[in-house]
Design goal:
The protein is of the alpha/beta class. 51% of the residues lie in helices and 12% in strands. The protein has a 5-stranded mixed β-sheet.
Length: 303
């Protein structure tokens, strides 16, 4: 059962709207509701003042310069692609997707905006907002990952259901969610497009936060390709720590480390191999039931 994700009354967004007058408003509201039901899945020009923001907007970053550019374009040529809204009451609407276009339209001083009206309930509003933004590729990877996380936490989706909704492979969803485990500095670099998702995924395999930041800075300064980043990570994680009293390194230990790194890369998670007097043990970390399923599916394919 999906959780309810809305909780604020209309008065919090539209001060002139009164929710308590069930008698007078009921007759008028029912009449309007009948008309509005006939207009679902159509595009209308709606006053911008009648559209409240989406409180579950997955997009967080809005470039002011690009917003101003869009505003100038809308002022000259109008808005080509409508925003998406849902009706809430008394000709009031809630934004589903298109906040950047709505902001730019307001900046342009226009009073109405072309809006496609969808029939969406409270439980689905987060999913619709995320899915429509992802389909238009308007979100950066961190915002997408946060959106996936919200679908899981607020709408009770599994990773498999998220993947189905956004037409992605479940492994892609899992890998994006893992980006949220990275330090803030790496997430910021990813949001600012200083590095790509491939660079960030390579850094996930580095356990030491200081080493992660060092590799991040080097990648930005030297404009690493993803392959160069992966190679830098491989070398950094393969280097032996400072020697203890005995300076010798057993060749078998080096071999096991190489195997561990190969498994870590293949399984996209932390893998440790420890020797014992006879034989040893392999430890594979996973961070959710879905990730365990992903690892098992991979092992089944390889067998």
């Amino acid at each position: 059962m999906a959780k309810k994700v809305l909780g604020r009354g209309l008065g919090a967004y539209f001060p002139d709207f009164e929710e308590g007058e069930s008698g007078k408003e009921s007759e008028q509201g029912n009449k309007q509701g009948t008309v509005l039901q006939e207009k679902v899945n159509v595009t209308l020009h709606i006053p911008v003042k009648n559209i409240r923001p989406n409180p579950h907007q997955p997009r967080q970053d809005f470039d002011e310069f690009r917003l101003q550019e869009l505003s100038e374009s809308i002022r000259k040529h109008g808005l080509i692609q409508p925003i998406t809204v849902r009706h809430v009451a008394n000709n009031r609407y809630e934004l589903i997707s298109g906040e950047r276009r709505l902001r730019a339209t307001k900046m342009a001083g226009l009073e109405t905006i072309p809006s496609y009206i969808r029939d969406v309930d409270d439980d689905a509003i987060v999913a619709y907002a995320l899915i429509e933004n992802v389909q238009r590729e308007e979100l950066n990877p961190v915002e997408v990952a946060l959106g996936y996380k919200r679908l899981i936490e607020e709408c009770d989706y599994t990773q498999e259901q998220v993947a189905q909704q956004v037409d992605k492979n479940r492994t892609t969803v899992t890998n994006l969610l893992r980006l949220l485990n990275l330090p803030a500095a790496i997430q910021s670099a990813l949001k600012e497009k200083k590095i790509s998702t491939g660079h960030a995924r390579a850094l996930i395999n580095v356990e030491n936060p200081k080493l992660q930041e060092k590799l991040l800075n080097k990648a930005i300064e030297e404009d690493f390709s993803v392959r160069q980043m992966e190679e830098a990570v491989r070398k950094a994680t393969s280097e032996t720590p400072k020697k203890k009293k005995s300076q010798q390194k057993d060749e078998k230990d080096v071999h096991l480390m190489e195997i561990s790194n190969r498994l870590r890369k293949k399984l996209s998670t932390k893998v440790e191999i420890k020797k014992k007097k006879e034989g040893g043990e392999i430890r594979i970390d996973y961070y959710s039931d879905d990730e365990l399923d992903r690892i098992l599916s991979y092992l089944d394919q390889e067998s």
